[in-house]
Design goal:
- The longest helix has 13 residues, at 142-154.
- With 188 residues, this protein is an alpha+beta fold.
- Strand 4 and strand 5 form a beta hairpin.
- The protein is globular.
- The chain is 20% helix and 29% strand.
Length: 188
């Protein structure tokens, strides 16, 4: 996607990249949309600052509001018994909808997911534990990404609880990326 210049139509909350702090976009501010992946937008301000706009606020930048996808709950219902293999497939599918706000590649292809474990939950259903890293230890987006992942995994039928642990051991490096990701980023 090329950069698209838009005018903010209403004030909206945003998150600074890479610091993860809350900020505001202001009505009539001009910004460039640099990325639209995984249900959120990355926009660049005139001063060069990157901010992330959630899909629920997409109308503020002239885009269609992205509703939380309820596809799992509609398709399966909350009480449909499902085996670990089906849940694990859905977990990986959901993880692939989460993107680094600065890199147009999902977190799975970037090699940020170190492990995913599905275990029985004490109150029925399953608990999903994900261990992930970030491309840089000082990235303030860890809390934002952690929350996004936990919310998306929580929509999967049969998942009672999800938890994401962010670690920097071992540290991430480019060799953890899939071949497809390296090719997409022009690294091959």
């Amino acid at each position: 996607m090329g950069y698209e210049l838009v005018t903010v139509t209403r004030a909206a909350k945003a998150v600074t990249i890479p610091y993860g702090t809350e900020t505001m976009l202001f009505k009539d501010e001009k910004v460039y949309i640099t990325q639209n992946l995984g249900g959120s937008y990355t926009v660049q301000r005139d001063n060069g600052q990157l901010v992330r706009v959630e899909g629920k606020d997409a109308d503020s930048i002239g885009k269609e509001v992205v509703e939380e996808k309820k596809v799992f709950k509609i398709e399966y219902g909350d009480e449909t018994p499902r085996d670990d293999k089906d849940i694990e497939k859905d977990v990986w599918d959901q993880l692939k909808t989460c993107y680094d706000p600065e890199i147009p590649v999902n977190i799975v292809e970037l090699g940020l997911i170190y492990s995913c474990q599905i275990t029985p939950h004490a109150q029925g259903g399953k608990k999903v534990d994900v261990m992930m890293t970030l491309t840089a230890p000082g990235c303030g987006m860890s809390g934002v990404l952690k929350t996004e992942i936990e919310q998306k995994l929580g929509r999967i039928p049969g998942v009672k609880e999800s938890y994401v642990e962010v670690t920097f051991e071992p540290p991430w490096n480019q060799s953890l990326m899939t071949e497809a990701a390296r090719l997409q980023l022009g690294m091959m």
